[in-house]
Amino acid sequence: MNYQTATELAQIGNRSDIQTGAVSAPIYLSTTFSHPALGQSTGYDYTRTKNPTRTILEEALANLEAGSQAIVTSSGMSAIQLVFNYFPAKSEFLVSRDLYGGSYRYFQELERQNASVFHYFEDFDSLKSQINEEITAVFLETPTNPLMQEVSITEAAKLAHQYHALLIVDNTFSTPLRQQPLKEGADIVVHSGTKFLSGHNDLLAGVVVAKEPEVGQRLAWLSNTTGPTLSSFDSWLFIRSLKTLKVRFEQQERNAQKIAAALENISPIEKVLYPGIGAMISFCVRDAAKIPEFLNRLNLITFAESLGGVETLITYPITQTHGDIPKELRESYGLTDHLLRLSIGIEDSQDLLKDLICGFQVFDE
């Protein structure tokens, strides 16, 4: 029977332990599993390859993203590394220009090693003008981090497939609740599972989901070979967290919509960047020199570099998440020292707005 998303999430792992009837799925801490006899297996041999707790999580994530197979890893960056290990050496990629600084740092390292070649696009027209038969895959953030730029996944997929390239989408910001890239034509989806999917700032994880079984099987083989394994306890914590994803995310989004609308009317703000969905808001202030004191005046909102948790965080990308991108480069596409990024939590939106307004008073002094 097909259930609604909220039901599917709440029921992850339920009825998986037939022997005891445990409602909460067990944590299988064992690293190794006995064989019934020579040449026989229960399906579980060694926990790097497969673990019962991790299996529950991966099946749930594959279902959530409408894919054939999910692989969970020890961090968002290990998930991206796993995906790029899928492609042959010397492959060429087209990548969103505005993207997470850690991804940029990794891509630069691959180029330094002469392992891959990366080209960058700003929007769909830029993507269209650069793609050719030499491109192996397109890597797309939509909305982008932190400028919230959007590109149609459907159109990007059609274009990539015309040139026999795969489309990889980082779906961390929107989550499968707001977009399912595999249904829109993408081939691989990645997430920093640390962010909205687990959502409590207490778990480091990555997610890769493949549309086609053969791609998923190859990624699973690579994961077993290279070992970016998520532990069984963290897999259980991830399962526990996913059960409340819809409730958390919808509250975060409601808060974000109210706050984004309010920020439009605050005079020290030059520009608000919010795509209308999700819980990520970026904004540019008129006077960058006032930012340190603005951050110091916040009492409720935490100045920290992450996102997606139940607690509201504010980040200064040029010194935190995107500090590894050269100044001239990031400023060339609009990431300046005037920009701040908010990850909205589940607190009461009135309290969050009061805290922000208190901080913004520094711009009038």
From TrEMBL:
Cofactor(s) the protein needs: pyridoxal 5'-phosphate
PROSITE patterns according to UniProt: CYS_MET_METAB_PP (PS00868)
EC assignment: 4.4.1.2
GO BP terms in the entry: transsulfuration
Catalysed conversion reaction: L-methionine + H2O = methanethiol + 2-oxobutanoate + NH4(+); L-homocysteine + H2O = 2-oxobutanoate + hydrogen sulfide + NH4(+) + H(+)
Modified residues (N6-(pyridoxal phosphate)lysine): 195
Keyword terms: Pyridoxal phosphate
Any one Gene Ontology molecular-function term assigned to this protein's record: pyridoxal phosphate binding
SUPFAM superfamilies: PLP-dependent transferases (SSF53383)
Leader sequence segment: none
Coiled-coil region: none
A GO cellular component annotation in the UniProt record: cytoplasm
One Pfam family of this chain: Cys_Met_Meta_PP
Domain of life: Bacteria
Similarity comment: Belongs to the trans-sulfuration enzymes family.
PANTHER family found in the cross-reference section: CYSTATHIONINE GAMMA-SYNTHASE, TRANS-SULFURATION ENZYME FAMILY MEMBER
Protein name (record): homocysteine desulfhydrase
Organism listed in the record: Enterococcus avium ATCC 14025
